[in-house]
TrEMBL record, chain A:
<keyword id="KW-0411">Iron-sulfur</keyword>
<protein>
    <submittedName>
        <fullName>(2Fe-2S) ferredoxin</fullName>
    </submittedName>
</protein>
<keyword id="KW-0408">Iron</keyword>
<dbReference type="InterPro" id="IPR036249">
    <property type="entry name" value="Thioredoxin-like_sf"/>
</dbReference>
<keyword id="KW-0479">Metal-binding</keyword>
Automatic annotation (TrEMBL), chain B:
<dbReference type="InterPro" id="IPR037207">
    <property type="entry name" value="Nuop51_4Fe4S-bd_sf"/>
</dbReference>
<keyword id="KW-0560">Oxidoreductase</keyword>
<dbReference type="InterPro" id="IPR011538">
    <property type="entry name" value="Nuo51_FMN-bd"/>
</dbReference>
<feature type="domain" description="4Fe-4S ferredoxin-type">
    <location>
        <begin position="540"/>
        <end position="568"/>
    </location>
</feature>
<keyword id="KW-0411">Iron-sulfur</keyword>
<dbReference type="Pfam" id="PF10531">
    <property type="entry name" value="SLBB"/>
</dbReference>
<keyword id="KW-0479">Metal-binding</keyword>
<dbReference type="InterPro" id="IPR001949">
    <property type="entry name" value="NADH-UbQ_OxRdtase_51kDa_CS"/>
</dbReference>
<comment type="similarity">
    <text>Belongs to the complex I 51 kDa subunit family.</text>
</comment>
Length: 122, 596
């Protein structure tokens, strides 16, 4: 180790993988991962959400999986919970859409209306 | 670096490993591979989570689900349900006695609520065999800061100001110790980490070494810089194979990254470390004996002065710090002296780790701010005595400490309070006793230990403790007189005052404190030839009461044929033949046999 900066760089890099173990995060992004969700392609969606959160170093966001949400026809489903805000349910999500949700909704605070269940049901 | 979506943390401390956590980890790895998730799920072996009673412990992140008492056959279900489908397997989660529902996550567990983890901050959080995880938690930042921004004098002043005292037992100011060694001129100075944890029932240092070995290495390098030493030794007992193994890995990784070795952080400071294995002699936890042992000589203590800070290892200035003391150092450097002083009491700053054992519901490892009361540790964290038995005493400080009673439960724990009550902080063993424990027997147990472990160099300790043990034997056999009690007490005081080292000076403490607080029990043994708790075998007799139905079960079981009686008639025990094994009492279906 030659300098403190070198150590700091290594720390920040290592930290990305450790963030997961902090359970005090306020924003939760939940992916339906029951048989229906997995069959519809929820696995790559979950992975891309995790990667995107890590890449952008979003410390307050937790990506978790859950069981069957009950609307199997709309899988893969991603739900976003944030404090004092209404839950947002996104449906028919794929990897690209997942990245957009992180960028627009989580980072900039703008719900991606066209992916929400309300928009799709119309 | 690969990003995983879920982490499975499995306790790899000695406690959980002895209940097969290594095989549980292996099964997790196999099963995760079977379902093709090996690139999404990270499986990590960590240090001790503290709640050893409920081990093996497995925690799944990001949810923080706390699975307790894991078994190998539960692994498949957890992988299939939780990791594949996202459904937490609630039936296997840890159940807090005080709540109706099973707990979801770590933060909800009562056991952790009153705890404050400073020395144990990384235990159960990081993979101790992966230096990157330590670095992610600000590891080696303190060393970097010290080497690039501070002078040795500033480091010593900071440690002094923090009020950190030695956690090994004596409670001497760590900063002072360093300041004694720093000005001494020598061609070589040494830093020693005392990891010769020997108190029966104590496992704090082992857990730190197993769960966070890099914290100790980092602190030793900082100490080296502060006093001008370039060489360090970790003296650890060979009975801690997991700790030794992880230390070896940690030293290797630190050297590879250049965090140990030559010219660290380009500052020109060199520091190298070696492990020395002890053979498990208790006296080698005493610093002068420890140094003898490192030098390859027989572990025996010597007179002080000269103190190690002036003439230590191979006659060179040396500082010796305990594992837990060192584990606090990097955080003091990173967060400052005021931060550290904000925990604990005026005279005892910071936190203390205790190994909670004996008659207690939550056996395990706890860390609390100094000044927490015994009641909080034993009841709020420890969950009290099992099976509704009454609390009788708590033994702190191992063979050097003493027993405290129910009257002392509201005493805030710090160095001075415990000494004032005739016990001591010690290294942090805390053994809880309930109404079924005989205090004379407890004192005898600890003395038996010190008699075995005395190095034999000085007469008071070698001969005196042996004579004390003989008197205690007489008491537990009901053969002692009241004069023997007086003799025991004066002998104890003499040994305390005249022994060469800490071992002998503190060995009589368990006897003196039990005599002080439980004199009635001693007198019952002597005057009435009775053991009030029903422990001392020689003073017991088994008797069959009128509840006997004459089933003959006990008579058939008795290994010495001491029980006579016809079918459907009251049986009797021949006391001259009875060896008091208790087999009859355990076997009786009618509770007709009692101990008197």
């Amino acid at each position: 180790m030659k300098s403190l900066d070198e150590l700091k760089k290594l720390r920040d890099e290592s930290l990305k993988n450790m963030e997961m173990r902090d359970t005090g995060k306020e924003i939760r992004v939940v992916v339906g991962m029951a048989t229906c969700g997995i069959a519809a392609g929820a696995r790559p969606v979950l992975s891309s959400l995790v990667e995107e959160v890590a890449k952008r170093n979003l410390k307050n966001v937790q990506v978790v999986q859950t069981g069957c949400i009950g609307m199997c026809i709309y899988e893969p489903i991603v739900e976003v919970y944030a404090p004092d805000k209404e839950k947002v349910t996104y449906v028919h999500i794929d990897e690209e859409k997942a990245k957009r949700i992180i960028a627009e909704h989580i980072v900039n605070g703008n719900v991606v209306n066209e992916y929400t269940i309300g928009a799709v049901e119309k | 670096m690969a990003i995983f979506r879920s982490h499975v943390l499995i306790c790899g401390g000695t406690g959980c490993t002895s209940s097969k956590s290594d095989q549980i980890k292996k099964r997790f790895e196999e099963k995760v591979k079977e379902v093709n998730l090996e690139n999404e799920i990270q499986i990590v072996s960590t240090g001790c989570f503290g709640l050893c009673e409920e081990g093996p412990i497995v925690i799944v992140y990001p949810e923080g689900s706390f699975y307790s008492r894991m078994t190998i056959d539960r692994v498949d279900e957890i992988v299939d349900e939780h990791l594949v489908k996202g459904r937490i397997v609630k039936k296997y989660l840890y159940e807090d006695g005080s709540k109706d529902d099973k707990l979801k996550s770590l933060g909800e567990v009562d056991f952790y609520k009153k705890q404050l983890r400073v020395a144990l901050r990384n235990c159960g959080v990081i993979d101790p065999e992966n230096i990157n995880e330590y670095i992610a938690r600000d590891g080696y930042m303190a060393l970097g800061k010290v080497l690039t921004e501070m002078t040795p004098e500033e480091v010593i002043k900071l440690v002094k100001d923090s009020g950190l005292k030695g956690r090994g037992g004596a409670g001497f100011s760590t900063g002072m110790k360093w300041s004694f060694a720093a000005p001494n001129k020598a061609d070589q100075k040494y830093v020693i980490c005392n990891a010769d944890e020997g108190d029966p029932g104590a496992f704090m240092d082992r857990s730190v070494l197993e769960g966070d070995p890099h914290a100790v290495l980092e602190a030793m390098a900082i100490a080296g810089y502060a006093i001008g030493a370039t060489k360090g030794f970790i003296y650890v007992r060979a009975e801690y194979p997991i700790a030794v193994h992880r230390l070896e890995i940690a030293i290797g990784q630190a050297k590879e990254l250049g965090l140990l070795g030559k010219n660290i952080f380009g500052s020109g400071f060199d520091f190298d470390l070696e492990i020395r294995l002890g053979a498990g002699a208790f006296v080698c936890g005493e610093e002068t004996a420890l140094m003898q042992s490192i030098e390859g000589k027989r572990g025996m203590s010597r007179n002080k002065p000269p103190f190690p800070a002036n003439k230590g290892l191979w006659g060179k200035p040396t500082i010796i710090n305990n594992v837990e003391t060192l584990a606090n150092i990097p955080q003091i450097i990173n967060n400052g002296a005021d931060w550290f002083r904000s925990f604990g009491t005026e005279k005892s700053a910071g936190t203390k780790v205790f190994a909670l054992g004996g008659k207690i519901n939550n056996t395990g490892l706890v860390e609390v701010p100094m000044g927490t009361t015994l009641r909080e540790v034993i009841y709020d964290i420890g969950g009290g005595c099992p099976n509704g038995k009454a609390f009788k005493a708590v033994q702190t400080g191992g063979p050097s400490g003493g027993c405290l009673t129910a009257d002392h439960l509201d005493t805030p724990i710090d160095y001075d309070n415990l000494i004032a009550l005739g016990s001591m902080m010690g290294s942090g063993g805390m053994i809880v006793m309930d109404e079924d424990n005989c205090m004379v027997d407890i004192a005898r147990f600890f003395l038996d230990f010190t008699v075995d472990e005395s190095c034999g160099k000085c007469t008071p300790c070698r001969e005196g403790t042996k004579r004390m043990l003989e008197i205690l034997d007489k008491i537990t056999e009901g053969k002692a007189t009241m004069e023997d009690l007086d003799k025991l007490e004066s002998l104890a005081r003499n040994i305390k005052e005249t022994s060469l080292c800490g071992l002998g000076q503190t060995a009589p403490n368990p006897v003196l404190s039990t005599m002080k607080y439980f004199r009635d029990e001693y007198e019952a043994h002597v005057k009435d030839h009775r053991c009030p708790s029903g422990v001392c075998q020689a003073l017991l007799s088994y008797v069959i009461t009128m509840n006997c139905k004459g089933c003959t079960k006990c008579a058939r079981l008795c290994p010495v044929g001491a029980i006579e009686g016809k079918v459907k008639e009251l049986h009797t025990i021949d006391q001259s033949k009875c060896i008091k094994c208790g087999a009859c009492m355990d076997a009786c279906s009618f509770n007709a046999i009692i101990k008197k």
